[in-house]
Amino acid sequence: MPSLDNKTIAGLLEETAVYMRLAGVNDFKAIAFDRAARTIETLENSIEPLITEKKLTDIKGIGKSIAQDLYAYAETGAIPVLEELKEQVPESLVAWLNISGLGPKKIYKIHKALGISTIEELQEKCADGSVAKLSGMGAKSAEKILKSIEWMQQFSERCRLDEATEIAQRFYDDLKSVKGVQEISIAGSLRRSAETIGDIDILIAAEKADTAAIFETFLAHESVLEVLGQGDTKASVRTKEGRQVDVRIVGQKEFPAALMYFTGSKEHNVVMRQRARDQKLTLNEYGLFHMDGAGNTDFERPVETGSEADIYKELGLSFVPPELREDRGEFAFFEKHKLDDANLPEVSDIRGVLHAHSTWSDGKYSIREMAEACMAKGFEYLGLTDHSRTAAYAGGLTIERVKKQWEEIDALNSEFANNGKNFRIFKGIESDMLPDGSLDYPDDILAGFDFVIASLHASLDMAPEKMLERYLRAIENPYTRIVGHPTARLLLKRDGSKVDLNKMIEAAAAHNTAIEINASPWRLDIDWRYGQKAKKEGLMTAICPDAHDIEGIDDTAYGVAIARKGWFSKDRILNTMSAAELQQWFDNR
DNA sequence: GCCGTTTTCGGCCCGACTGTTTTCAGTCG
To answer: Where is the Polymerase/histidinol phosphatase N-terminal domain (predicted)?
Structure first.
């Protein structure tokens, strides 16, 4: 029986779409498969019963044909149309899509004309001039392909949110003060706080007369390794870190529409444009316009909009914060509600640090140093969670050391109280979740902690069903108050465990156990894509920096961004509570 | 391939840039 989980099915449909594009079939077919994949990926419940009961066409976006494909897959373990495509299109061509400048059409043309299918062959044929001879290609195309392959091998395609933030900030700071810059904003996936970033987009409002000087500053920036392209309104560079940075300049009047446009997401924009069409308007990066008789944009008749919020308003929506622009429920919500109704957190709403390590295990600073750093940053409490005894590699605490640590925490708390400091350290532990789902200490020790975070650190590649059992057992344990980084993924490095997060969320919500948002930019786990499910189940979370040093405490900001992206309202975030309220919640098992 | 208070056929978001052309296709976001 093939695996029928949502992710696997969505992956297969996506793969089919990729092969369709490479095979040159009608692009709308491929789009239909992509849409279906996205829909299934976003479902809050398992798709399996819909397959076994043959009710797939109940889902909007899945018609007879795709339904039949998936019924066949459930029976045979293969999608017939995908298998056929694979006979036509060599698998190794898929990797070519990562080469910038090469799309499905050119890839197929080169493959057919020269009978090659590997990247190495492509490099050869570019170098010996064969590619340049093909119609529609030329010497520049071949050169660009070679260059792009070189970049691809040298640099990774995406980077973490913290890396992108740092690079973007550099350009932003320098460009902000250039003469003629009227407005400037980061756009793209970085503005949406995606967990990994491909290109960095910066948008500027300026008069036409000033654009040349602004581009000059941009292209001459010390971080620039190579200029990739430059036009009247747009320029692209590659930085020494291998990141592509695009700067676009528009007129000040166009800035709001352009900002919306370049913030995306693509999926969000598609719906926005459709909404405009429904009102006989058209939306592009220059603004919202009426249409002429032929249904084309009438640039002479704009709808006046002075901000992104105005554009949303014209299209029947309240302002949608950038983090939520993913076409994952924001349209239904903001048609009826205002931003305040979402009750999303700001960094300033976070009152305490939960999940941090000290020198007692693998942290860099003592408990006192961590506590004082928290105080200096304006927090009211620290939930200290060193590693448990099984995590010997990280200096996990034996029972004896646990007891000693408690003494130290008690002493520090008394000292703070005696000095009139309104600050408290909670005794916590990041307990390894053992392979059978039990925690790492006997009950009498577990009872001595204020709270326990149960985390996965070893035996990550268990079968999904076994892993779910392991989690369920840990969630049912009355001492577990928070589940740590639920998939244990490391972004761009290691996939997390394949556990069914929808089921985990249901169980955690039912047992009043929180699942953390691990705010380390390496993790950002639980994934924001499960936000709607979490909201529906009333799941609690905590924004946890998992700090191993003082700087790590500031990762809280990334966690707040992900919490917003995942629709977590303040009342479902433990560390928006006061210390007293939190104590009560910990005790209410 | 999917969808339908304009439609069961004919649409499906839109513009900039590039490189190849000499009016446009392909790619990108």
So the answer is: 352-435
Rounded (10°) angle between helices A399-418 and A367-376: 40
Separation in Å: B26 C1' and A45 CA: 39
Taking only the tens place, the pLDDT of each residue in A187-197 is 999 999 999 99
Q: Decide which of A220, A250, A280 is a domain's last residue.
A: A250
- Spatial CA neighbour of A205 closest among A224, A227, A178, A229: A178
Q: Nearest protein residue to B3's C1' (by CA)? A: A61
Q: Is residue A320 part of a domain?
A: yes
Residue A52 pLDDT greater than 70, yes or no = yes
Whose CA is closest to A139, among A127, A151, A149?
A127
Distance (Å) from CA A44 to C1' B9? 34
List of long-range contacts for A234-238, beta carbons under 8 Å, 24+ apart: A238/A151
Query: Is residue A454 located within the same domain as residue A504?
Result: yes
Measured CA A549 to C1' B4 distance, in angstroms: 58
Percentage of the residues of chain A whose pLDDT score is greater than 70: 99
Residue A185 has pLDDT above 90, yes or no: yes
Q: List all nucleotides in chain B with at least one atom under 7 A from a protein Cβ.
A: 1-4, 11-21, 25-29
A39 CA: nearest nucleotide by C1': B2
Mean of pLDDT over chain A: 92
Which protein residue's Cα is closest to nucleotide B12 at C1'? A28
Same domain, A490 and A397: yes
Give yes or no: residues A443 and A558 share one domain: yes
Which nucleotide has the least CA–C1' distance to A29?
B1
Q: Name the residue range of residue A241's domain.
A: 159-250
The 10s digit of each residue's pLDDT in A293-311 is 666 778 888 888 899 999 9
In the three-class reduction of DSSP (H, G, I as helix; E, B as strand; rest coil), residue A533 is classed as helix
SS3 assignment, position A234: strand
Give residue-wise pLDDT tens across range A135-179: 888 888 898 899 888 888 888 888 999 999 999 999 999 999 999
Q: Among A342, A357, A392, identify where a domain stops.
A: A342
CA of A255 to C1' of B1 (A): 37
- pLDDT (0 to 100) of residue A393: 81
Question: What local confidence, expressed as pLDDT, does residue A98 receive?
Answer: 87
Which nucleotide lies closest to A102 by the C1' atom and the CA atom?
A: B27
Nearest to A20 by CA among A10, A9, A8, A32: A32
